[in-house]
Amino acid sequence: NAGVTQTPKFQVLKTGQSMTLQCAQDMNHEYMSWYRQDPGMGLRLIHYSVGAGITDQGEVPNGYNVSRSTTEDFPLRLLSAAPSQTSVYFCASSWGQGDGSPLHFGNGTRLTVT
Amino acid sequence: KNQVEQSPQSLIILEGKNCTLQCNYTVSPFSNLRWYKQDTGRGPVSLTIMTFSENTKSNGRYTATLDADTKQSSLHITASQLSDSASYICVVRGAGAAGNKLTFGGGTRVLVKP
Known about the structure:
The complex is a heterodimer of chains A (114) and B (114). With 114 residues, chain A is mostly beta strands. Chain A contains no helices and eleven strands. Chain A has strands spanning 4-7, 10-13, 19-25, 31-37, 44-51, 54-57, 64-66, 76-78, 87-94, 104-105, 109-113. In chain A, the strands form two sheets. In chain A, strands 2, 4, 5, 6, 9, 10 and 11 form a seven-stranded mixed β-sheet that branches. In chain A, strands 1-3-8-7 form a four-stranded antiparallel β-sheet, with no helix packed on it. In chain A, strand 5 (44-51) and strand 6 form a beta hairpin. The relative contact order of chain A is 0.33. Chain B is globular and about 45 Å long. In chain B, strand 9 and strand 10 form a beta hairpin. Chain B contains no helices and eleven strands. The interface between A and B is medium-sized, with 19 and 23 residues.
């Protein structure tokens, strides 16, 4: 059981470049989300989706786009990379947003923007 | 602003010893409190989820306690093992007026030495 798979594991971008971080889950979870993790700070929600075709902004959405065309996939797009987007990005999924539904995280993408 | 504060930021313990991690939160009202374990270079993995009406929950050598009156939780690790070396993250889900969102603490980094 693969769970949540993120690719790539590492990426270096130059300022202004764009890229897509991939996330796929094989647990048929309706809820998927993207977080960024910076040193000394808690995980912060970027965007989330409660099902195919439905997305919404989280706490820090600026500079990022998402789409959800299938239940399994939830890619995160960086439109024009900035050094402030240097971070570790985690994708997570769960049965729902409600009580008792733990998040299942991927192993992250470490992004450096120079 | 809803906050989740964890202490200490880091600690070192000897293999076989016990330790307790603290989590104080201001999220109110809340529906549940979660503890996650994050190994270096990996995504967080759920350890326990407690609703506001639960006082304690165990997962093997991990025992979480919750005092909703004082808005404090603790995670106790019994007979620590080298594999317990990780960051431990406290997460609180709000409810009602606090919003149905997760607020993450900054984590406590635990190093278990032989």
